Amino acid sequence: MSLLVAILGLALLIVLHEAGHFTAARLCGMRVERFSIGFGKAIASFKRGDTVYQIAPIPLGGFVQITGLNPHEEFDPNDPYVYPNRPRWMRLLVLVAGPAANYLTAFLIALVVMVGYGQPTGTTTIDEVVPDSAAQTAGLRAGDALAEVNGKSVSEPSAVTKIVRGSEGAPVTVKVMRGGSPVTVTVTPRKDSKNSVYMIGVKFGVVRARGPVLSAVKEAALLPVAVATGILTNLWDLVSGKVKGGLTGPVGIAREMASAAQQGASRFLEIVLLISVALAVFNLLPIPGLDGGRAVFLGVGALRRRDVNPMLEAKIHMVGIMLLMGLLVVVTFGDLKPLVLKLFG
C-alpha cells in the first residue's frame, strides 16, 4: 500500500507539472491537441474545443501535446495559434509554467504541514549521535537533552553550535538531562574537514508547534526556495567532486516515498515537497530536452532576433533526451542492483 501511494504521489507531481504547461499554453492562446494523464493508448477520453483529454493505463505521469512545439509534427505554419508563432515571452512562460506548478505545489504542501502540524522548531535533545564522533567518544547518547554548555544555559541548537565553534577545539563541558537526572560530560570538538568548523557530531531533534497563520505562510513561501538552493548546492558539489555520491532514479524515489508513507502523513508530505522542488529545479537546468534547455534556445533566438532553425533545435533536444534516458537507465539499474543482490543472496 505504501508503495502504491508513493507511485501515485510521484505520478501526481508529474501530472501537475504538465498541467502547468497546459494552463499557460491555453492562457497564451496556443493550440493544445492533447492532455493525457498516464501514458499509452487512451482507456477513456473526451474532446472539448480543440483538445482531447484522456486517461491512459500507465500511471507514470502524463504529457501535454502543444501544436508546433515539436517541429516534426504536421501543423499549419501560418496558424497564429501554434507554439512557434506565438511571442517569445509567451513561449517562455509556457516553458517555465511546469516548474512553477511544482514550486506552487511545494508551497501549498508546506502550508498544509505548517498550519496542520505546526512549524518546525529545533530542540537541544539529541536525535542521533554521529558514529566515531567526538560526542560518541565522550559518551553522549540519543535522547540526551543538553541543558548547559560551558556553564551557559542552552535552549536551541544555534546556541550550542555558537559555543562549540567558538571553542576552537578546546574541551567543552556539557550538562545533559538523561532519564530525568543531570549528567555532565566533557567533549573535545573536532574540525570538520568539509566545512572547516568545529563540531561535536550530534543531530538535534525537531518538534512542531502551531503558530500564527501569517508566520506559517511566510515560512511556507521561503521553504521551497531554501530546498532548491540546497539541491543546487549539493548538485554542484557532486559534479565538482567535492562530495561523493550518486543520483537517484524513479525506483529510488518511490522507495523513499514509500518509506516516508510508513512513517506518517507529515513525513510523507515533507518528502513529496522535496521531490516537487527537485522536479522543478531539474527541469530548469539548461540541458537540451528539458524546459531549461528550450528556454536557452529562446534566449539565443531573442539575442539574434531570429529563432534557431527548428529542425536543428529539435535534433539537439533529441540528443539531450537520449542522453537523459541513458542516464535514467544507469541510475535505475543502480537503484535496482541492491534489491536484486538481496533477492538472489
- The total beta strand count reads 12
Task: Name the structural class.
Answer: alpha+beta
Order of helices and strands: HEEEEHEHEEHEEEEEHHHHH
Low-pLDDT segments, ≥5 res: none
Radius of gyration, taken over Cα atoms and rounded to an integer in Å: 25 Å
Helical element count? 9
> What can be said about the biggest beta sheet?
4 strands, mixed
Mean pLDDT: 86
Helix content: 40-55%
Shape label: elongated
Please state how the strands of the largest beta sheet are arranged side by side: 2-3-1-4
Q: Give the count of structural domains.
A: 2
Strand content: 15-25%
Q: Between the first and last Cα atoms, what is the distance in angstroms? A: 26 Å
Quickly list its features.
single chain; Pdz3 Domain; 2 domains; 345 residues; 9 helices; 4-stranded antiparallel beta sheet; alpha+beta
Give your account of this protein's structure.
This protein has a 4-stranded mixed sheet, covered by helices on one side. It has a 4-stranded antiparallel sheet with strand order 7-6-8-9. By secondary structure, it is α+β, with helices and mostly antiparallel strands. α2 packs across α5. The model has no long low-confidence stretch (mean pLDDT 86). The longest helix is centred in the last third of the chain and has 34 residues, at 310-343. It has 9 helices and 12 strands. Helix content is 52%, strand content 21%. It has 2 domains: 2-115 and 265-343, no CATH class; 120-209, Pdz3 Domain, CATH 2.30.42.
